Amino acid sequence: MKPKIAILATGGTIAGTIDSAIATTGYKAGALNIEVLLDAVPQIKEFATIIGYQISNIDSSSMSNEIQLNLAKKINKLLIEDEIDGVVVTHGTDTMEESAYFLNLTVKSDKPVVLTGAMRPATSMSADGPKNLYNAVALATNEKSKNKGVMIVMNDRILSARTATKTHTLNLDAFFSPDFGDLGYILDGKVYFYNTIEKLHTKNTPFNIDNLENLPKVDILYSYSDDGSGIAAKALFDNGTQGLVIAGSGSGNIHQNQKNILKDLMKKNLIVAVSSRIQAGQVVLSKEDEDLGFICAQDLNPQKARILLMLSLTKNNNSKKIQEYFKIY
Ligand code: SIN
Questions:
Q1: 58-106: per-residue pLDDT in tens?
Q2: 13 CB within 6 A, ligand 1
Q3: CATH topology of 4-204 equal to that of 218-328?
Q4: CATH 3.30.420.310: does it fit domain 218-328?
Q5: Cα angle value 72/73/77 (rounded, 5°)
Q6: Residue 143 CA: distances (Å) to CA of 88, 139, 192
């Protein structure tokens, strides 16, 4: 019997259209529905039985906590069923790494979950969506894909949701894992694994979203020369933000103007995690900053640190305990 894969569509360029085969910009993302995406890849039916669901149809730059929660709940429900062997999510590439990491922390199954998308719209003469979708299903049906955490497949690369990031605005080869490399690659539908990522994921995290209707509010601020974003930090806090991620300079440094304001807000229970605006490498905090309660985001980029901080705040708001989560997940 062929493996059964659920494909959950959320929108993005893979479902994008424009009325020119040459155009690779200026299109409308999230214009086609799941049936049209599947019709473009009839070859998938040769090796898998597919069941499709439309979760949303948006440009992923407007992704929301609500859609991510719905997606995770739907995946958990599907993967409990014996007859479902794996899940593929089609997603816009702009925030794919955020949803992928969210699922990596909240899906409670070791069956494969694979995200894919496209850099060129479905109407383009060089559309990459169909091959990416074919590869994603090939990966989701592969026995070796179990218990690897959530994966991203783009341009034949297999990447971990924990480490992958979008590194090019327009190129087809837009996803990399700067410090840790690819998990493997797919060639003519054959899956080749080379690496694993040791960080805990899926069934081995404490984050259970099944009964959550919303998530704690966490925002991101950048650090830069002559930084005036302390005003924004105060405004966000007054507006209900419980956690902030700072995209610090270098190895996680914060402009003194900003830090003074953050220190005051932390005394009022704002939780602050420090990441870096640099694409690769670890954040290192001074003993003084650790003692003040700043959380080191390790190697997580700001947008992924935000995801982990939101989920951590569903468990507690103790910065020492949250720091432990950042070391493990
Ligand atoms: C989006 O993220 O929805 C648009 C961009 C893309 O999918 O490449």
A1: 999 999 999 999 999 999 999 999 999 999 999 999 999 999 999 999 9
A2: yes
A3: yes
A4: no
A5: 115
A6: 15, 9, 12
Cα-to-chain-centroid distance, residue 36: 25
Q: Is 202 a catalytic site residue?
A: no
Catalytic residue among 10, 13, 123, 241: 13
Residue 13 bears catalytic tag: yes
Q: Are 118 and 13 in contact (CB under 8 A)?
A: yes
Of the candidates 93, 123, 165, 202, the residue annotated as catalytic is 93
Q: Is 59 in the pocket of ligand 1 (CB under 6 A)?
A: yes
Q: Does residue 114's CB lie within 6 angstroms of at least one atom of ligand 1?
A: no
Task: Please identify which residue in the block is written with the tokens 């424009």.
Answer: 18
Atom of ligand 1 nearest to the CA of 58: 3
CA of 12 to the centre of ligand 1 (A): 4
φ/ψ region of 281 (left if φ > 0, alpha if ψ in -120 to 50, else beta) reads left
pLDDT, tens only, 225-272: 999 999 999 999 999 999 999 999 999 999 999 999 999 999 999 999
Q: How far apart are the first and last CA of the chain?
A: 36
- Beta bridge partners of residue 191, listed in sequence order: 186
Rounded Cα distance, 73 and 81, in Å: 13
Where do the structural domains in the chain lie, given as residue ranges?
4-204, 218-328
98 CB within 6 A, ligand 1: no
Superfamily assignment of 4-204 in CATH?
L-asparaginase, N-terminal domain (3.40.50.1170)
